[in-house]
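Input sequence (251 aa), recorded before submission:
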Amino acid sequence: MTDPLILYAELAEWWPLLSPPSDYAKEAAYYDAALREHCSFTPRTLLELGSGGGNNASHLKHRFEQLTLVDLSNSMLAVSRELNPECEHHLGDMCSVRLGREFDCVFVHDAVGYATSQDELSRVLETAYVHCRPGGVALFAPDYVRENFEPQTAHGGHDGQGRSLRYLEWTWDPDANDATYFVDMAYLLREHDGTVRVRHDRHVEGLFSTAQWVAALEGVGFSPRVLTHQHSDVPFESVSFLGARPAGSDA
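Predicted structure, token format:
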């Protein structure tokens, strides 16, 4: 994967004002239920790849005995450690990290979007597979699949102790024939003295069809299942992918 963007490095400490943990409660409950429904035993351990600032983890940590978090950005891990001090944190690339042990469940939220080629996607899925206990499951939640992608604009932000953030998010696809789309993010950052500065990031993210996802999951050894649900924050049906690692399978 590529090096962290401005949001995940220079602006990491602002993350809670852009995306607070409270926004993740309903989603985390949905993902927890999906993992438990499809796992062949009662899961106790969870690995999250691309865990970012730990917002999902802040809810999931109460549902698992052990939650282990991996992210590419040291700065975002610092944010997560403050929010989730009881969780185990590791610096690593979800395409290649190897922790040397297995977990009952593996979860990759929208960070999977940073896999911008089918090769990178397969490497993320392989990482999940080798860390998933036989009989366990992995869940992947991209923001979009090819079938439901539409250009979008969104805005928001929050006020904190002495400073505030507002953002504009512009999602668009300059080339419908390739496997990526852009998310341009503009951040307005107001300091305690009233000064405001503006920063911009361009996030290049992967866009794959449902069939490509299913084939990639099968290619690394998972038994795939396509899940759909209506997310309250988006006007279309969200698609996520569950991979069951067959009992008795070898890494």
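Checked by second reader. Residues 6-145+207-244 form a domain with the Rossmann fold fold (CATH 3.40.50.150).
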